Amino acid sequence: ETGVTQTPRHLVMGMTNKKSLKCEQHLGHNAMYWYKQSAKKPLELMFVYNFKEQTENNSVPSRFSPECPNSSHLFLHLHTLQPEDSALYLCASSQERTSGADEQFFGPGTRLTVL
Amino acid sequence: GQNIDQPTEMTATEGAIVQINCTYQTSGFNGLFWYQQHAGEAPTFLSYNVLDGLEEKGRFSSFLSRSKGYSYLLLKELQMKDSASYLCAALDSNYQLIWGAGTKLIIKP
To answer: Which residues does chain B have within 8 Å of residue A45's beta carbon, measured at their own beta carbons?
Structure first.
């Protein structure tokens, strides 16, 4: 595997379900990000991890819970979601968070539909 | 507030040239990125400008004017594979990326 991978690519869940999204980066980066992408809207940064420590949480509802066990893996745990949470969830990585001019490498995303 | 403006959609003809504009208002500025995103795929990095001027990379060029809060992406010799969304993002003083909603570029034969 190369670059940034995400699983699953598509997910349909009911509002009472619990599911997890997985992201893995094979680039040796130290920063990882979760974004939400909705149609015709800017990318919304959700969470940032730098060297496994969460450095940013942009007022994300608690029904989204991130986990970063090491610098290569990032999870987003989902529970009791709402239909408006349906979107494309993108994972990205970069060399480090603090040197912000580094380009971010994105995974292909998980298309989430909440029924 | 911080804001990025770019056109929602543009149409161009194969073989032609197209310019996608982006204006930004941010708290401080540490550079501007352009990404390309094909439908159903990951955004991929195209360019980063932090100094005024034009940077050319093959068929793609990116321009920045810091005093005007303005950038554009210039695509030459358009090919059908250039049909994609183009995302503009500015880096603010806290190194936060402020994203635009993207410009969907449609290439017609």
So the answer is: 96-97
Closest CA–CA distance from residue A76 to any residue of chain B (Å):
18
**How many contacts (CB atoms, under 8 Å) link A and B?**
49
Phi, psi (deg, nearest 5) at residue B65: -125, 105
Give, in order, the Cα–Cα distances in Å from B100 to each of A46, A68, A114, B51: 16, 27, 25, 20
A-chain residues near B45 (CB < 8 A): 103-105
- And the tokens for B88? 């503009």
Q: How many residues are listed for chain B in this entry?
A: 109
Taking CA atoms, A46 is separated from A87, A111, B66, B69, B74, in Å, by 13, 16, 28, 26, 31
CB contact under 8 A, A101 and B48: yes
Q: What is the pLDDT of residues A17-32, one digit of tens each?
A: 899 999 999 999 999 9
- Please give the single-letter amino acid code of residue A41: K
Residue A99 — very low, low, confident or very high, per pLDDT cuts 50/70/90? low
Rounded-to-integer distance, Cα B20 and Cα B39, Å:
18
Q: List Cβ neighbours of B86 (8 Å cut-off, separation of 6 or more).
A: B6, B20, B34, B35, B36, B37, B46, B73, B102, B103, B105
Task: Return the C-alpha torsion angle B105, A47, B4, B1, nearest 10.
Answer: 160
